[in-house]
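so my prof wants the structure for this chain in the tokens format not the other one, which i didnt know existed until like an hour ago. anyway here's the sequence
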Amino acid sequence: MLSREVLESYRRMSLAERLKLTMDAIELHMPGLIAGPPEVVARRFILLDRENNARNEGMLKAFSRVRESSCKR
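here's what i got, hopefully its the right format
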């Protein structure tokens, strides 16, 4: 989890600054992601996809709980 300070500084960034941050992270980590035999790289991306899907599902469930609790009021 990111600290409040980091989250606040991220919120203050412009769209261009956020995009640059994202592109820099991709550039930094891409060599490690695509290194190795094709089977290993494919497994690596399948795992990343699975982790992203699980995280997104958790966020959607949390949003749903918040929405349900606010509708009951």
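also thought this was worth mentioning. The first helix runs from residue 4 to 12.
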